[in-house]
Amino acid sequence: MSSTRHAEIAGAGFAGLTVATALAQRGWSVRLHEKGTELREQGAGIVLFGNSLKVLESLGVIDEINEGSMTPPFYETRMQNVIVSDEDMPGVWWRTLTRPFLHKVLSEAARHAGVEIATGSEVIGATESGTLRVRGGEELEADLVVGADGVASAVRDSLGIRYDRWNAKDGITRFLVPRRKEDLQRIEPDTEWDNVIDFWNLEPRVLRVLYTPANARELYIALMAPSDDKEGSATPTINLDVWTSIHPQLRPVLEEATKIDGKYFRYQTNRLEQWTKGRVALIGDAAHAMAPALAQGGGCAMMNAFTLATAATAADPADLPDALVEWERLERPFTERCQDRSQEYASTRGMSQGGQFVGDNLETALYDPTDPNRHLAQ
Ligand code: FAD
Ligand code: 5PR
After folding, report:
1. Residue nearest to atom 7 of ligand 2 (CA)
2. For the chain, which residues score pLDDT lower than 50?
3. What lines the ligand 1 site, CB under 6 Å?
4. Under a CB-based contact definition with an 8 Å cutoff, are residues 146 and 19 in contact?
5. pLDDT tens, position by position, 83-118
6. Is residue 34 part of a domain?
7. Which residue range(s) make up the domain with 310?
8. What is the β-pairing status of strands 280-282 and 144-147?
9. Residue nearest atom 26 of ligand 1, based on CA coordinates
10. ipTM score here?
């Protein structure tokens, strides 16, 4: 093999695009397989913290991210429409944005770094010696194979890696809608409509709206209801009467949501017996799907994607499998602690008490995957 190392990557979500770009920027030749016929992200909004923002900075796209995103003044939590906390998270770097925008910025960065992107290319499996198999195609050889193919990962399952999975009782339907800020202000003039507002309502029924401004024009709303609540979880069109009966001040934006086809997702957490096997590494939801409570699923996906790229680049090519095991040993505990905390919040609905962005809950947000000295103190 030539001195240029080669990576084959499954899945062009946030994890796959990040590892592909970081490897290409470090001199690797990289092919990224996406089963979708187009490169795009259908999700709504996302909150990113310092751990992933540092990665975006290192990839060279932070100015673009800053232009298309915002930092709301406060992360507000309300219970039965009474404010229980307004957190401004001193010392914490955080931004809100839309997922299509983040996906576009990362896709452009990947192309610019020289990543070969193969759309309509469905990965059906991998081998630990470092091959990737694509539907209807041959075995592609690589120094490093990455499974970034999401919760239903074909790479993971083809390797026989076992995992535990938990589904929460609640789920969520997410939308990107126009801000309608003036209409909201008319209804509730005293509310700061630039805040993130987590509108919890547990009585008489569990219907929560997480309101997240993503930029000057777009608002991300996430509507949470228990999966056994037929009306609350109704899709593709939300039940406007039910949602406005509990959250009347959100009528303008809930009306906007009725114009869009929604999809209800149950929260899921995965825990694998191992993240690596030979020359294959798993990242993102393929390896560590988590409940979204602390807004770190995508953040952990991007930080693990980035540290995988730096660890693989630093390794002697012959010893790559050992380097992957060491990468997992060092990085995985941060993600697992975040999974545990998010799972606990999701299953107890503890975020309704507010004040969650403090202490240990900020461990992942404050983690700097780009700091080469980050493990020295351990
Ligand atoms: P995915 O986004 O699932 O990407 C996988 C890609 O692989 C897709 O493009 C798919 O088409 C492709 N693919 C799949 N199978 C194959 C195959 N066999 N061959 C080729 N390609 C394939 N995270 C945050 O950080 N902040 C938040 O605010 C936040 N909110 C969330 C809200 C909800 C309701 C949920 C469910 C999650 C949230 N997350 C959040 C988590 C975040 O969305 C995920 O963790 C993140 O998108 C995972 O990225 P990924 O690249 O691993 O997987
Ligand atoms: N935070 C964010 C989010 O999108 C969700 C949650 C928390 C940013 C759900 O989508 O707790 O459900 C949550």
Report:
1. 293
2. 1
3. 10-16, 33-36, 46-47, 122-123, 148-150, 154, 172, 174, 265, 284-285, 292, 295-299, 301
4. yes
5. 999 999 999 999 999 999 999 999 999 999 999 999
6. yes
7. 6-41+99-165+269-366
8. parallel
9. 295
10. 0.94
